[in-house]
Amino acid sequence: QLGTGEAMITILSERGAPTPVVWTMLRPPTSSMAAVPVDDMDAAARQDPLWTRYAQEIDRESAREKLAARMAASAEAEEAAAAVEEEVAAARRRRSEPPPPPARRTGGRGRGTDENPVVDYLKSREGRSMVNTVARGVFSLLRKRR
């Protein structure tokens, strides 16, 4: 049985083989195992010769911050150029498009969007194509059942 401060140790020989186990006494640490008080740490730091150089905290602009600012500036410039280019293209389109024909006024009920949107779709080319496809499918099913 080992008591307080006692240990059994072994070390490696010069060839790397373990040596026989030896009983030994361990000395307790003479320093404190607690955290160093803040006042003592400050006093030790102030006595250091580098304190005069590193005492004042300086927050310089980092390389990452400089690169981020440069990238943001280039992104803003690209957005501004794209906006100007879009405005120029829109102005060209407006100049090249003929003016819309004047709207006709007819009496009675008008055609187009005033009606039911489903009816408008079914009257369109795509709607008629869909109706024909569905009708062909239904009639082919009826023919197969006979």
Automatic annotation (TrEMBL):
Extent of Acidic residues compositional bias: 78-88
Region of interest (Disordered), residue spans: 78-125
Sequence ranges assigned to domain Helicase HerA-like C-terminal in this UniProt record: 1-138
Source species, domain of life: Bacteria
Protein name: Uncharacterized protein YjgR
Taxonomic classification: Bacteria, Bacillati, Actinomycetota, Acidimicrobiia, Acidimicrobiales
